[in-house]
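My current task is to audit a protein record that another person submitted. Alongside the sequence sits a line of tokens, each denoting a local backbone shape. Please read both lines and tell me whether the tokens look consistent with the sequence. Do not assume that whoever made the record got everything right. Thanks in advance; the entry in question is below.
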Amino acid sequence: MSTRIFLVSLSAGFIATAANSADLGSADISQPLPTEGGVADIIHDWGGGYVGVVGGGAVGEVKTQTGSGTLFSETPLRGGLAGVTAGYNIQNGNMVYGVEADVSWAKVKGDKACAGFPSQTCYYELGWQGTARARVGVAMDRTLLYVTGGLAVAGGKGGVDPILGAIDGQDQQTYFGYVAGVGAEYAMTDALSFKAEYLYTDYRQRTSPRGTVSPTDSYKSDPSSHLFRVGVNYRF
């Protein structure tokens, strides 16, 4: 009898232990997986406003000529620039849409013997440049690849040396044109990001009146430039 009671008790204990083990296994299996929203929370958010600084170099060319075409030049330009930028992004999934504006203080200049009058030097300098652009990008977590384009404005001055009877001897203009380019940005932290970009700017030709550079002729100038810039943005 005691043996039967022992076996019944042992069987009951075994069944209870098995039941507890099954419950524990079920509890482990029933743990919920991360929701889609939880996964999305770890993707970097590129939305919102930001400000930053940029710097780099530029190469370009300016085509200058008198109205009659007797004096002309295609002068290469090169130099450096540094500036500030501000923008705003809206993110939809992995697509990022934004606007950005910047202004840079530059010294992109060059000189060359004038064609038609080789005894004179044609010179030119872009002193500042600014852009207002749209940006469209694809975000891959902390990396953003984008294309950009919009309006460009710049201030420039040029002329010939030595001056031969002109009133001013130097032409100063504000140019308007377009800008287009590509770039990449990497988020180092939630607030700070580093970017590198290439921009091409092409400005509309401007004409100054007779006597500005040549005493007997008008003066036309048509600059363009390639900008290679890096920068740091602070997102808020």
